[in-house]
Amino acid sequence: MTKNIYFASDFHLGSPNHAESRKREDRIVRWLNFIQPTCGELFLMGDVFDFWFEYKYVVPKGFVRLQGKLAEMADSGIKIYFFKGNHDMWVKDYFTQEIGMEIISDELLIERNGKKFFLHHGDGLGPGDRKYKFLRKIFRNPICQWLFGMVPPRIGMGIANGWSAHSRAASKAEEVFVGEDKEWLAVYAKEQLSKQHFDYFVFGHRHLPLTIKLSESSTYINIGEWLNYNSYGVFDGETLKLAYFEK
Fold first, then answer.
1. CA separation for the pair 99, 44 (Å, rounded)
2. In whole angstroms, what is the distance from residue 179 CA to residue 183 CA?
3. CATH homologous superfamily of domain 4-244?
4. What's the pLDDT score for residue 145?
5. Alpha-carbon span 11 to 121, nearest angstrom
6. Are strands 108-112 and 231-235 parallel, antiparallel or unpaired?
7. DSSP codes joined into one string, the chain
8. How much is the pLDDT for 133?
9. What is the pLDDT at residue 167?
């Protein structure tokens, strides 16, 4: 039997507080238990954590149920990919060493069962948002990361948690569709499609589950988030569709 491929993004674990994050983590683990029997590959497409920074000997505490479940799935032979999002772009090699996940920094181009996929968290793509694109270059700069790593974890994590408390995820506001011509990731996908064919463009980051036909043979899908929608993508070997868990 051909196994399914699953895509999920924007868990934002840690936000807005420990109690709500734990409820969300438990729900995500239930979802992983649900998909495990039919899962061949799992793509976690960014912002799994609302903040993550790996010091040389220190990582953020918590999230052990998710990590344990992912380790179990990886040990059973399921290939897991972890995309760096704009909230957890400072992931390094901890998850590769401890769980066996493959870390993806930017886009990943794959082909499965004759279908071509363009995969990316979605941050920094498309028109506009120049302020974030500038900050992204700073945040991803190795020297800047090294300097932040010199800050003691108690202070560094305090700064990060304060920033996280004012993030978009903390507000839990639901996004609204602004029109195909104004959906910047759809615009970006159309630009890429003019250069090379892909059957599916799959993104997170936008926080709104979306399916937009770009052409007769190409589709843009945003897999949404787990603060409001519990949405994910599933590819059964023929078609990629949005699905919802406990929604």
1. 13
2. 6
3. Metallo-dependent phosphatases (3.60.21.10)
4. 67
5. 12
6. unpaired
7. -PPEEEEE----BT-S-HHHHHHHHHHHHHHHHHHGGGEEEEEE-S-SBS--B--SS---S--HHHHHHHHHHHHTT-EEEEE--SSSTB--SHHHHHT-PEEESS-EEEEETTEEEEEE--TT-SS--HHHHHHHHHHT-HHHHHHHHTS-HHHHHHHHHHHHTTSHHHHTPPP----GGG-HHHHHHHHHHTTS--SEEEE-SS-S-EEEEEETTEEEEE---TTTT-EEEEE-SS-EEEEES--
8. 66
9. 62
Residue 3 is predicted with a pLDDT of 93
The series of mean pLDDT values per 10 residues for the chain, 247 residues long, is: 92 92 97 98 95 82 95 97 88 93 95 97 77 66 69 68 61 73 90 95 95 95 96 97 94
What size, in residues, is the chain?
Answer: 247
Q: Where are the domains of the chain?
A: 4-244
pTM equals 0.88
